[in-house]
Each structure stands twice: as structure tokens, then as C-alpha cells.
Amino acid sequence: MSQGAARSTRLPRWGRVALAISLVLLALALPRLTSSGYAINAMITTVRWMIFALSFDLVAGHAGAVSLGHPVFFGVGAYVAAILGPRLGLTFISDMLLAAVLMALLALLAGIAFFRIRGVTFAIGTLGAAIIAQLIANNAFTITRGPMCIQGVARPELTIPFTETTLRVAEPIQYYYLSLPLLFITIIIYLALTSSRLGRAFTAVREDEVRAFAVGVSPLRYKLLALTVGAGIVGALGSFQAHYVTVVCPSEMSLALTTTLLIIVFVGGVGSFRGVMIGALIFSILPRLLEAGGTQAISPALQQVVYGVILVAVMVFMPGGLDDLVSRVTRRLRKAGPREEQQP
Amino acid sequence: MAQALRRIEIDFVDLFLWLFRTAIIILVIWGTVAKVFFGVGTEYSTAAWIDFTIAGIAQGSLYALIALGYTLVYGVLFMINFAHGEFFMSGTMTATVFVAIPLASAGYLDSNPFMSMLAIMLTAMLVSVGIALLTERVAYRPLRRAPRLVPLITAIGASFFWQYFFRGLYGSAVVPFPNIPIFSGTIEIFGLEILRTRLVVMAASIIMLVGLYFFVMRSKTGKAIRAVAEDKDVAALMGVNVDRTIAITFAVGAAMAGAAGILYGLMFGQTHFFMGFVPGIKAFTAAVLGGIGSIPGAALGGLFLGVIEAVGPPLFLEGLGIPGAHQLKDVIAFTMLVLVLIFRPQGIIGERLAEKKA
Questions:
Q1: pLDDT tens digits, A14-25
Q2: Which residues contact B125 (CB under 8 A, 6 or more apart)?
Q3: pTM of the shown model
Q4: Which of B164, B326, B352 should one mutate to test binding to chain A, selecting the residue with the greatest count of A CBs within 10 A?
Q5: Which domain does A186 fall in, by range?
């Protein structure tokens, strides 16, 4: 939807490379600037929402299937780390890989069934599945311990290659540096899947499945691809989360996560890398700012009300989201200049 | 080559779906047989089974009333009004807090139960209608020409908004719905002990369902609703005010939801800011089961869902040896939702759901 607008405000290649490098350096340097654990926790949350939202946007924004069941893969991934990991004696990295592979398989099977549901009812069908998953997690005491949660998930231990030392991860700052590679991998996968020929195929599927099929793009295959990859990423993230907070509860797949994802992606700009990243940044920082600023003045309920208003207002007045806003501003700034690429 | 591959892909999908469907049918039959012939789990008397069924019918008639809102709106706009459950909740909570509880503490609810029930219900319906009209005007009407994904997202946003708005107003605690002596206890009909509240719920639902059916089929406004559902542009050419008719459709659905909310309060004795969510999705399930867009379908779908949900856990879930089967009735309802959407989106009797006018 906002693809065209994004394209027309693109920086030249060297500019983009420079921007990417400086953002990576910033991400690496950021925790060094502060010593407060609170701030570093906020950074980990931000990275987590970025990964979560990018994987969700692959499915919702690019394959055009708004799955309200996305957090299920996160929650089950966390349970894989908490239940299967210790029994199989896996380390942190292989645990994450296992969660990713299992969630991708689950997504493949679920996708074959659920992509039969066309149009907007797909959302409510996947919502039903998400509620079922949560009810099962809450009631299967023997496996998940229900609302009592599984506690004491092992903290990661990393063996540093070519040395004998093992690093026991416990500090927030270590977790932050552990989460960054996952974010970079997610970004690379996201960009690879959404640019070039693949990206155009996704756009075709999203805009009109029948016509996409007519020109030889199988909608089912591309939707399955997006869902499988998205679920794999978020499964690994779930595993990371389990090793980070060391507690896994049924609330890891709660619908509150779905709402936050919808807000991040649709307010940021659905189908746009820049928009999703901005959205994730804003909606990870904003609640903390509201908490810190008003202490008691802004109750959580009011915060949710504000979120609801923002979501409705953005969809009504600015369907392209913040990404569209950024594009418009940069275009206006550049109006005098000669660079005004036209999108065919 | 490519064609051959595509054929294999489709065959694989069909095979997988067939296996999925067969597995579920086998599980249900297995559970039922184990329960009926081998007596797995608790043994229930005939009276208990009848009680389950009646509870299911009463619950199902509530689903039917709420489902009307989904069905009417889907028939007209082809959109899923996600916020419908919140219309249900808003009217109920407001009427409970501002009418039912004051009336109960003034003693008027005991001395004049029918008049006060009427007042409570009218308040609930009015509030629900108000909320629905506001939501339609702000969140749906500007998006009538937008891709269909967009109103879905605003509907989720609106639902979220109203939930927390009313949580802010009335708090997150359960607000008890006052007990009305004349409606409590049991009554004996044909030798069956039936809870009076269930009887009231069923009677009120039947009256409203029949009334709505005749409103849509016989009145002039109903005709306009059907015309707009058929074709908005042609209806506009025939002099139907489309915007107004759509607003009326929302209002009628919300009024039914408001009334259903009070019946819900009567039956379960409590209201809560989150009470609209699960019944809302279940009512949508009922609407799809009966064939979305059809009023008799909503009624049948609601009853069907209510009974399956009430009889299913003691019957086939216990038969399968699942512990705590009674807490899993929601699992049955949502499984029905998923199954009907995947395998029979046209419902048991009704219209085809997906992409009807894509």
C-alpha cells in the first residue's frame, strides 16, 4: 500500500548504507551510554517488539493475512524452551533453533488449514485458534502447570569458540547483546523476502489473489512461506524470552500481545520496514514514558483507551501510518530539489 | 512440469484437510461411544442430561440474539463488526450500574419486577444503540470505500477502546446483577424442573427473534435494509437513504445485543467489562454456523452452538478421558468456529460467507 510512497523518498545507495551502518553502531553503542538497568531493559523490550512486529508484518503486511494468532508461536516457542529444552539437554542456541524449526512446522500445517479461510474471516478464525491455544495452556496442568507457570528456565550459557571459557549470561546488558543478532537476522530475512522478485510476488498476492494466481504466482505457497518464516522467527524469539525472564506462563500467548502487534504494525505503516521499526520503537518507549512521567496520573486503563483511539484515528485519517507521514514530510522537504523519482 | 507440481500441491492440501477432518470426527465418535456404552468418567442421570440440554438452549438463545447483530451487519456491509461484543457489554453494564442496582436498593425491583425489568432493558438497549451509532459514524462510515482489511482493524481498535473505556468508568471488578426473587428458583413444566431464569431468557429471546424477523421481512425499513444488502447503489437509485439504513442496521443489532446483555445478567448474576469478548466471538460462530446473513440461521446456529457447548464436555470430552472437561466448553465453541470457517463457511443452511462480492 505504502510501497510506492516509500520508494519515491529513498535515499541514494551510499546514503542508505551509511544510515544502516550508523544505526547498527548506535544499536551496539546504546547500552554503553547508560548504566541503569531500567533503560537497558527498555532497549531489550524494544528489540523484542521490533523482531515480533517484523515477523508479524511479513504475514499481515506482505502476505495480506492478518493472523490474530501470531503470539501462539511465541508462546509455544517459549514452552518448547521451558519443557523440551531441559529434557533434551539442549544449549541456548540449539534451543532457539529447535523452537524456530518446530514453530515453522506448526505454522506450515496450520497455514494449510487456515489459509482456506478467505478474506477478513481469516482474522477471526486465527483468533479462535489463539484462544484455544491459550485455554489448553491454562488447563493442561501436567504439561504447562497452567497459570502456576513454569519457573526456573535455565539462563543461557555460551561457549566461546576456540576457547574453553563458558559465559554465563545473567546481566541485562548481556541479554541485550544476545538479542541483537536475532534482530539483525530478522531484518535480513525480512528485507530479503520483501524486496526484488519475491517482494513483488507478495504484493501481487496481497492485492489480488485471483490475479496473482492467473500470472503464475501461487497465493497459497507465498502465504505459507511468509507464515512459516514469521512463525520460525517468533518461535526463536519466544525461546529467547523464556531464557531471559526464566518464567513461562500461558499469558505469553495472550491477546494483549496481538493488540500491541496490530497497533505497532498498523500505526507504524503496514507492509513497510521503516514504518514497523518506527512503530515498534514508539510503542515500546511510550508506555514507559507515560509511566515515568505521570506516575499515578495515567492509569493503565486510560493508556489502553488512548491506544484504541490512536489505532482508529490512524486507520481513518492516515491509512499509510507513520511511514506515510515520514514520506510526505521528506517529500515536502525535498520538493525544491531535482530528485523526484517516479514509481512506475 | 509446473502444472504437475501444482496438482501435487493441491492434492496434498486436500489430503491433509481430509485427515484433519476425519481425525476430529473419529475423536468425537470415540468419546461419545466411550461415554455412552462404557461409562467413562462421571455417570449422569437422565435429569442431568436434560438439564444440560436446557442450559444449552437458554445459553444458545442468548448467542442467537447477539448473532443477529453480526448477521445483519455482515449482510449489509460484508464486514465483521468486531466491536459488537462491546455493544453488548456497554449497555448491560450501564443499565446494571445506573438502573438495576439503584432500583434494587430502592426495593422497587421486588415490588414491581416486570416494570423495572422493562426499564433496565430499555436503558441497556438505548445505551448499546448509542455506542453502536457512535462507533459506526466514527470508525466505520469513513472507510466504506477502503479495502476490507481497514474496517476490520478499526473495529478491533474500537472494541479495544470501548473495553477499556468502560473499565475506566466502572472499574475492573465484577458488578453483580441484582437478584430478582420472582425470576429465581425453579418451576415445574411437564414434570421437569426448570430454572425460572432460563425460561425467562428463552421466552424473551423467542419474542425478540420473531419480532426482528417480521421487522426485517415486513416493515418498510426492513425492506430498505434488505435492498441495501442486495445492492447499495441500486438501492440508492430507488430512493433508499443508504447511510441511514446502514445506521439503522447497526442500531437494530445493538438493541438486540443490549437486551441479550440484560438476559445474560439475569442468568449469570454478574456483569464485567470483559464480558463482551467471549460471547461476542461465540455469537459470531453461531452466525457463521447458521449461515451468515440469515436471521433464522442466526437463531438455529445459536441454539446449535449452545447445546453442543453444554452437552459436549460431559459427553465426548469426558469420554475421551480429558480432565476438567467442564472448563473446556470454550474450547468446543472455538473449535466449532475454526472448523466451520475452514470446512463449511456457508454454514448449515445459509449463504456463502467469503468474498461474496469481492
A1: 878 888 888 888
A2: B91, B254, B255, B258, B259
A3: 0.85
A4: B164
A5: 38-253
